[in-house]
Design goal:
By secondary structure, the protein is an alpha+beta fold. It has 2 domains: 37 residues; 171 residues, Lipocalin (Beta Barrel), CATH 2.40.128.110. Helices cover 22% and strands 48% of the residues. The chain has 2 helices and 9 strands, in the order H-E-E-E-E-H-E-E-E-E-E. Strands 1, 2, 3, 4, 5, 6, 7, 8 and 9 form a 9-stranded antiparallel beta sheet that branches. A hairpin with a 2-residue loop joins strand 5 and strand 6. The longest helix has 36 residues. The chain is globular, with a radius of gyration of 24 Å. About 5% of the residues have low confidence.
Length: 210
């Protein structure tokens, strides 16, 4: 009887071990398959489905919206992101936290386009060029209002039905580094609770195909 119980236990252990091994092998195959799906090439950004999201902060609340990508490319080597560059259409700034037909929506959009912020009349585009990629950390040069600064942020490259998708996790940019000083506590005193935070949030999704 003891021998039978021991045999059952041994068989059970062997079965569980084989099952776990099969799971691990399946995972390895899935990872390899996913890597193989991302072919080395230069991919063109889909301007209809790619977007940059922004969010600004002040003591009394927040505002958020989007900026469209005018054009862009992503370079993939050995199945990994190796480079790329993007041009953003600053005339496409939208405000999403206010109804589109709200008078203040148009007022805020106009203010963001003015010299107080992005001076779109003289700087209709912003540019980002990838300079290096280390794992999931992307580093590059961002040019806004003719001023270029190095920034870095986490991003993930995955295969998609039509090509690839590069998704950038939320990160922050200091607007004052690009000469956007409006209601910044760095440059103006006695603002009390009327100041606007220097840092604003950015996230994005770029869909691209060959």
């Amino acid at each position: 009887m003891k021998k039978q119980i021991l045999s059952i236990l041994v068989l059970s252990v062997l079965f569980i071990s084989c099952k776990e091994k099969a799971k691990e092998e399946k995972k390895e195959v899935e990872v390899k398959t996913e890597m193989q799906q991302i072919a080395d090439a230069n991919y063109m950004a889909n301007t209809e489905t790619s977007i940059l999201n922004w969010k600004g902060f002040k003591p009394t609340g927040t505002h958020n919206g989007t900026v469209a990508i005018k054009n862009g490319t992503l370079e993939v080597k050995e199945g990994k992101l190796a480079g790329g560059n993007f041009v953003f259409d600053m005339n496409s700034i939208t405000v999403l936290d206010l109804p589109a037909d709200d008078e203040y929506n148009a007022k805020l959009k106009g203010h963001l386009e003015s010299g107080d912020f992005f001076d779109v009349a003289n700087n209709p585009t912003a540019i980002f060029k990838i300079t290096s990629v280390n794992g999931d950390l992307v580093k590059g040069d961002l040019t806004v209002k003719g001023i270029t600064k190095s920034i870095e942020f986490p991003a993930t490259l995955t295969a998609s039905a039509n090509g690839i998708k590069l998704a950038g996790a939320t990160f922050q940019i200091d607007r004052t580094e690009f000469d956007i000083q409006y209601k910044s506590q760095k440059f103006f005193d006695n603002l009390k609770d009327k100041f606007i935070n220097d840092e604003f949030e950015i996230s994005f999704e770029v869909n691209a195909s060959k």
